[in-house]
Structures are given as C-alpha cells and as structure tokens.
Amino acid sequence: MPKAPAIAAYDPQPLRDRVVLITGGAQGIGRGIAQAVLGAGGAVMIGDLDAEAGKACLQEWQAGDRAAFRQLDVARETSVRNWVKAALERFGHIHGLVNNAGIANPHQGPLHALSLATWNRYLAVHLTGAFLCSKHALPALKSVGGAIIHIASTRALQSEPDTEAYAAAKGGLVALTHAMAVSAGPQVRVNAILPGWIATDAWKKPGERHAPKLSKQDHAQHPAGRVGTPEDIGALAVYLLSDASRFVTGQQFVADGGMTVKMQYA
C-alpha cells in the first residue's frame, strides 16, 4: 500500500530569488504588488511613466539590488522592449510579469461625446500595453516556467454609466488571459485579478500621499466589512506568481470584498 502523502512545509518566502516585472508599479495597486513581492523574498523591476514616483519607491524601500526602476510607456513598443531588456541585463532572469498599468479614471462622459482618441488611449494603455509587455517578456518567462498576471477590474463584469472605454479595455484583459493561458502553457501560467474598490490614497508618491477619506457606509457596502487595500491585491498576486498556484491558469480572481455578489436595492 502506498505511503500517505507527507505534510508539506509552508514557505514563508515563496518568491525567494525570483524576479517580477510590474507595470505601473510606482503607485497604487502596482506599488502594493511590488512591496508584496519584496516581502515574499523576490526582486522587482517596476516600470512607470512617473519617474518621480518610481525613484521615491527605491528611496523608501531601501531594498538594495532587489529593486530597480525604469521609466516606461506601455503603449510604446520601443519603451517596452527596452524595459524588458534592462530587467534581463540587471537580474539575468524574469520569473513573473504583472500587467498593472492603466488609466485610473473609468468615467469619460457619455458615449456619444467620447472621442476616438480617448477610446484608443484606454485600449492602448490597458490592453495593448499588456500585449506588448507579455510579447517581449514571454521568451524569458518560458525559459524558467514563469507566470503572468493581468490586473483587470470588476468593471469587466459590471458597470456604471459612461465607462465604456474602461470597461471594454478591462474586459479585453479577461479574454486575453484565457487566450494566453492556452497559447503559453504549460511553460507559462496566465491569470487575471479583478480588483473592486481599492483605496490607494496612501500608496501614492510622497507629495500626493494622504490617508483615505472613507465613511462607515463605504466600508459597510462590502460583505467583508471594509474597502480594499493594495496589500489585498498584493497577497493574491504573490500566490499566483508562486509555485503554490502551479495548477492554476487561465482564471479570473475577483478581489472586491464581496461587492459583486451582494444584491443592491435602491
């Protein structure tokens, strides 16, 4: 009779010696993910349009050679190519990619007044950016058996008025997730995180940082009892980047404190 499976030890640093690239990694959810990766023993290359915010991260983290920053425009292929190249030159390997960069404001007015330029900008930053970063990082990720995470949104599943461009871009990321999981597997796993209401006020660059102003009603809307934080998304990202999730790919994970399952009555 076969022996019973042994109890596996829990690894308190599941990303030890792993390198993770994070777009939009200098503020908000991206910074939360970067700090979670560092806390899990990994190294990070963050990319962001805001050079001031990126440099502030390195100064505040004091993570030494485990953290690097390079200015990045995810909508420009040359910028993406150079960013990935810089990461490989700095660290030698890439084990994970988090496509987080995006335009924070989902509201752009009524559809009949939405300009084509604005529509294209949302698609370029959210969707084309994820495509370009995945395209250029994929060879390195395949060589080590890595993982990709797309940061979508619960707005891929539900909407407020006048958010068509944002919702379409985030919905596209969900579809891109399962398509890439099939194409890139089994070497690379691809999953999506769909955050809900995440308070990022305290996760901005120093000159814009402040405590979030949230009411009891804001928190009470969530079955979990509170508005989310970047740490909540970071914890889930660490799981999806680690070997603990090696049987998980092509999936979308809603992290919204339960808001999408709660019936809303006026």
Structure, explained:
The protein has 266 residues and is α/β, with parallel strands linked by helices. The chain has one domain (19-261): 3-Layer(aba) Sandwich (Rossmann fold), CATH 3.40.50. The protein contains seven helices and seven strands; from the N terminus they run E-H-E-H-E-H-E-H-E-H-E-H-H-E. Helix 5 links the parallel strand 5 and strand 6 (189-195). Helix 1 (28-39) packs across helix 7 (230-241), helix 3 (77-91) packs parallel to helix 4 (116-144) and helix 4 (116-144) packs parallel to helix 5 (164-184). It starts with 18 loop residues before the first strand and ends in an 11-residue tail after the last strand.
Summarize the structure.
The chain has 266 residues and is α/β, with parallel strands linked by helices.
**Which residues sit in consecutive blocks of at least 5 with pLDDT less than 50?**
none
Give the overall average pLDDT: 97
Helix % is 25-40%
CATH topology: Rossmann fold
Order of helices and strands: EHEHEHEHEHEHHE
Main sheet: strand order: 3-2-1-4-5-6-7
* Name of the CATH first level: Alpha Beta
Strand content: 5-15%
Number of domains: 1
Layout: helices, strands, pairs:
Layout: E1 19-23, H1 28-39, E2 43-48, H2 51-61, E3 67-71, H3 77-91, E4 96-99, H4 116-144, E5 147-151, H5 164-184, E6 189-195, H6 216-220, H7 230-241, E7 252-255
Parallel strand pairs: 1-2, 1-4, 2-3, 4-5, 5-6, 6-7
Helix pairs in contact: 1-7, 3-4, 4-5
